[in-house]
Amino acid sequence: MKKIPMRRCVVTNESWPKRDLLRIVRNKEGEVSIDLKGKAPGKGAYIKKDPAVLEMAIKRKSLERALDAKIDEELYAKIKEVISEKQPA
């Protein structure tokens, strides 16, 4: 059996398989972006691919605290788009 990498969601604090989470990364210049491949350099934070979890993250500022960076509304909108695309039909 192949080992499944597990990561912790910064909002719900639950461990999930890495492929079920979305990685948000802050690079050395302080720019925050979505890391779809999961391999970008920088400080990363994982969030469950669930619109309700994203809403909690926005309210609690969980991603901002985890990455120690300000996240603008535009990035949250992009995250919402990515999460919506990944939802099963």
Helix count, DSSP H or I runs of 4 or more residues: 3
| Structural class designation | alpha+beta
Portion of residues in helices?
A: 25-40%
Low-confidence stretches: none
> What is the CATH topology assignment?
Hypothetical Cytosolic Protein, Chain: A
CATH superfamily: YlxR-like
Count of folded domains: 1
Q: How large, in whole angstroms, is the Cα Rg?
A: 12 Å
Strand order of the largest sheet: 4-3-5
Based on Cα principal axes, name the global outline: globular
Mean pLDDT: 93
Main beta sheet, described?
Answer: 3 strands, antiparallel
Describe this structure in words.
It contains three helices and five strands. It has a three-stranded antiparallel beta sheet with strand order 4-3-5. A two-stranded antiparallel sheet has the order 1-2. The termini are far apart. 34% of the residues lie in helices and 25% in strands. The relative contact order is 0.21. A hairpin with a 5-residue loop joins strand 3 and strand 4 (32-35). It has helices spanning 51-60, 62-67, 73-86; strands spanning 6-8, 15-17, 21-26, 32-35, 43-48. The protein has a single domain, classed as Hypothetical Cytosolic Protein, Chain: A. The model has no long low-confidence stretch (mean pLDDT 93). The protein has 89 residues and is α+β, with helices and mostly antiparallel strands.
